Structure formats: C-alpha cells, structure tokens
What we know:
Elements: E1 2-9, H1 14-27, E2 32-35, H2 38-50, E3 59-61, E4 72-75, E5 87-91, E6 104-110, H3 114-128, E7 133-140, E8 146-149
Parallel strand pairs: 1-6, 1-7, 2-4, 2-5, 3-4, 5-6
Antiparallel strand pairs: 7-8
Helix pairs in contact: 1-2
Amino acid sequence: MSQIDFYHLKGEGLAQAVAMLSDKTVASGQKMLIISPPALTEMISERLWISKSDNFLAHGVDDDDGSAFAPVWITTDADKNQINAEFVCLIDGLCPKNMMAFTRIFTLFDDTQPDRLEMARAQWKDWSSEAAHQCRYFAQDDAGHWHLKQ
C-alpha cells in the first residue's frame, strides 16, 4: 500500500516545501527521490544546500556522481530512481509509470496555476479510488504552516 500526501502550496514556497519533506524523510531513515521539471531543478537543489542552518541535505541531480551515497536525488526523468528511494516527491504533476514502487508519495501543487490544480484534483480522484493507495490532503495557511484537512 502506498500513502499519497497532497500538499497544496500557497504561492511561492515550492523549494522550501520540498526541502522540509526531504529533511523529514532523511531524518526517518529513508531516501527521497524528487521528480522535477528541468526548469525547477536548480532552485530545488539550491534550497536543499541551505535548508538547514547546521547541515545540508546531500543530494545530486540526474546523472551526477554520488547516487550511491546521497539520501536525496533530483531527477527530471520520471522513470529513473537513481538512489532506489521508497519515498518520492512529485512536482508539476510529473509521475512515474510504476507508482507502486514507492511506499510514500508526496505530490505538491500550487493553486496559482489552474492547470496544476486541475491535475492534482484528477490525480486525487484516480488515486484515492484505488484500494492500494491511502490519500491525505495538506493545505498551507497564509503563515506557511501545514494542516491536514479531513
């Protein structure tokens, strides 16, 4: 069974949310694969380097060296899992063909982009109807805090 968490972003904050989820994933002893469009990889990578004041989240991008050691990896190819992660963060609706390869899925979407909001709604409808998936929805308030919605 996969747990799928939808994160509804309010405006800017994508890279910060990805860093927060990656940090929590690594702290739990898991690895995080981040599937991102090419235009966002640099912004996400930079945020991972500065996400913690006492440390950074070691990571790589696409065909960089170090995939054998990094707990976080950013890929632009939705069907590559360079670090054999069981947790995945989906950005801009990108999705691997084999969702069942992951035990935990985070999908982030921004409500300022109507097409992304509609895509997230369609994914929620499709994925929540399958018994193999447990879906949850988190919304960000104006202060940037996350709340589980029922």
